[in-house]
Amino acid sequence: MKTNRFNYFLLVITVFAVFFGILMVLSASGVNYASLNLVPSLKQSGFALIGLVLMFLLAFTVDYNVWIKWSNIIFIVSVICLIAVLFVGRDIKGASRWISLGPLSFQPSELAKIAIIIMTAKFIAQSRKYILKYEGFWDYIKMFALNAVPAVAIFALIYLEGDFGVPFLMLCVWFAMLVSAGLNARVWVPIIIVAAIAVIIMLSFTGYRSSRVSNFKQYLRNPAVAEGQVRSGFYAFASGGVFGKGLGNSQMKSGYLATEAHNDYIFPVIGEEIGFFGTSLVVLFFIIFFVNGMKISSNTKDDFGKFLALGITCMIVFQALFNMYMTVGLIPPKGINLPFISYGGSSMLFTLIMTGILLSVSKKQKSLL
């Protein structure tokens, strides 16, 4: 058994993905090169630069075990920020998800993603033998509640902001971590049932969400009646062909895909401008990211590092899947962007921080080769 080297390959492809994202934000920010809006790409470049610096620092200089000591503080800060945004948050398109810090905005849910992962990885590391050993339903539930109660509190606070997509994403990652840790089926099966009922209730009693679901049902019956953004996304992918129309030449980004196509709907812009080749590269990147992340997780010696790597990998890749599924009409539209690529300072910054932590885990691995 020997120790693996640092995962430089994951580091390199992540840097390339970030620069590709900045290029696509620049291209998607205007109808053509003559009318490009440079502000989004400049802001994105600034956050990317800060994020890359933090990623390198976390990857090479910080031992990931330090996050065990900081887990409670990160959780408390996350909760405080999530509560604060309900009162002083900046309202954008009917949702208060941002806290303004001068000219910049901070999205507390991005910090909460890290809090959920670290908190759950710590819980698994400290309780793994009890998770694997089932000695009675109520004793098991009491043990499980140590992690479930604070996690559900975060989900609820983000939902109160008017955001359904992010808490659902976090729920999926949290659940994946616990099931991978060996959570007994007598507990996780009821969790699925309760979660499914809660999702149905939340979708049914919120006007714009129930409308989205209704429109999505109609679309499944007859794709011709798809709502504007979904239909425009189809046109963008179809018109791009194999190699696309060229950077800056997307027509669908001009008020068809969304008010700002460089946000959640940047994937169809890639499809129209760089074609099937470009979208395939994006999909390939996330496949490679997932495979490398899972290798880091499976080869890590301790439970905390193992599930920390698993949680980070799932959070980034699941989010990418949700975004791509949304833009190709497989799930109803929701406000989830494409990691590393879509416009969004908070998302870029905290995604790179998570990647830095993942890379730091890769320094302490075991291999039978």
**Which strand order does the major sheet show?**
1-2-3
Proportion of helical residues: 55-70%
State the helix count: 12
Overall 3D shape: globular
- For the record, give the distance between the C-alpha atoms at the N and C termini, rounded to a whole number: 7 Å
Count of distinct structural domains: 1
Order of helices and strands: HHHEEEHHHHHHHHH
Query: What structural class is derived from the secondary structure elements?
Result: mainly alpha
**What is the number of beta strands?**
3
Low-confidence stretches: none
Q: Report the sheet with the most strands, covering strand number, pairing sense and barrel closure.
A: 3 strands, antiparallel
Computed CA radius of gyration, to the nearest angstrom: 21 Å
Q: How much is the average pLDDT? A: 84
Share in β-strands: under 5%
